[in-house]
Amino acid sequence: MMKMTKMMxxxxxxxxKAFTCVVLLELLLVPVVSALVPAxxxxxxxIIFVSIIPLKYFVDRIxxxxxxxxxxxxxPGQGPETYTPTPEKMQQLSQASLYLHLGLPFERVMMERIxxxxxxxxxxxxxxxxxxxxxxxxxxxEHKDGHKDGHKDEHEDExxxxxxxxxxxxxxxxxxxxxxxxxxxGKNVVNNSQQKLNNLQRELNxxxxxISKLFAAFRSLQKKFLVFHPAWGYFAKDYQLQQxxxxxxxxxxxxxxxxxxxxxxxxxxxxxxFVTKQxxxxxxxxxxxxxxxxxxxxxxxxxxxxxxxxRKITAAILSSFRER
Length: 324
Ligand SMILES: [Zn+2]
What we know:
Elements: H1 2-36, E1 46-50, H2 53-62, E2 68-72, H3 87-93, E3 98-101, H4 105-117, E4 122-125, H5 135-144, H6 167-185, H7 193-216, E5 224-227, H8 233-238, E6 242-245, H9 255-267, E7 272-276, H10 281-290, E8 295-299, H11 306-322
Parallel strand pairs: 1-2, 1-3, 3-4, 5-6, 5-7, 7-8
Helix pairs in contact: 1-3, 1-4, 6-7, 7-11
Bound molecules: zinc ion.
């Protein structure tokens, strides 16, 4: 009951925020956009928009900067959960040809507005994998029976936007990115795009197998890792790990949650707290202290080089397993 009321409050709050956002943006954007768009647009480089930096990495590797300009919505240091597009971003978006998005909270709120600003824009939700099925639903079902210790994770009853954390899911997203780019720019414009796509697919498969092997060596009891912000739910699921999150639905835990967390930390001898680069360090330190954890390791779920970063995350989680 409590949970229900909380959820309703949250939904109402989000709706209000969304409404205020849209109204504010409408007020802000109309004069800005009309002032910045030249009367006659010259045939310049095509613009492709992506939600987050890791998606830019993949697009950059498929096409060269000579062919297109790839613009990221959420810039370094910004959090996708709290992001609101600036008028400058909306102006650039008004001239874009393709928008590859992940259905992030702000994108869901802004989608109608974006369509109005640029009716020609091709908008592709990269999570739609055709006959492969919907990523979110597929993962949500498996989440339901994934937690045996009574600790509910952040995304049990809401969409987890961090699908890119799993290289296996990235491997499913990649063909959609590829086809969307080819359809938008034309296969002859995109130099060797198919070859590049095949290489990326192979690299993702290799990365997936490499990570599977590394984690397979550990017993299930040890495969829990503690995070402040739950950015690695899909990663954890694919490698049979369990992400324990301090943050609940974007909020700090209550006293009862904290008690439960403390028990889990003690029982599993967890010594490291992983925080994201986008987080406030001081806040993380306070929670670490209250859970008697001395080691805080910073990870970036939004780093540019996907392969290097995913290997770095894997190594950090592995070393946290070894210190127990
Ligand atoms: Zn996040």
